[in-house]
Amino acid sequence: MDERIAFSNEYLATLTGVLRELPLPALGEAMKVIERAFRERRHIFICGNGGSAATASHMACDLQWTLGRTGKGIKAIALDGLPTITAIANDSSYAEIFAVQIETLADPADVLIVITGSGNSPNIVRAAEVARGKGLTTIGFLGMGGGKVLPLVDVAVVVPSRDYGPIEDVHMVFDHLITAYLKSWVEAGCPER
Questions:
Q1: What's the pLDDT at 72?
Q2: How far is Cα 74 from Cα 38, in angstroms, rounded to an integer?
C-alpha cells in the first residue's frame, strides 16, 4: 500500500475514534445555551488563536449567515478584528486582546465561546475570567483535558485527544453540527425543547 494512503487511513482512523468518544451531553448543553441566546437576542462572542481563530471566524459567519438566510440570524461576533487585536496587544498586552473586547462589547447574559486546543493560552484564560466577572455564560470547545480554562467555563466540551489536528478538526465539526441543528430548529419554528 502507498505510504500516503496508509498515513491517511491511520489519521482518519484516529479521527473516527475521537468522534466516537465525543461528550455529546456536554455538546447538547452548549447547544441549549446558544438556543437561549438566540431566543433572547443576546450576542455570542467567539474567540481562539491560530487555527482556532479561523474556526471562530467560520462559526460566527455560519451562525450569522446560514441562519440569516432563514430570516433569523444569530448575533454572533468573532473577536478577530486585526486592527483591534494589534492595538490592544501593542498598547497593553497580547493576553488582553479578547478580554478588552469583551469588557467593551458584552452585556451580562451574552455568551462567550472560547475555542482552544490546549486551554492554556493566557488570552483565552483572561477572556474567560472577564466574561465570568461580567455575568456572561461561557462555553469552551477544548482539547487536551481542558487546560487552565476548564474551570472557568460554564459548559466545557472537551475533545478526547491530545493531538491538535484531530482537536481542531472536531471543533470545526462542532460548528457545522450546531449550525445545521439550529437551522433545522429555526425552520421548525423554534419549538421549546
A1: 75
A2: 6
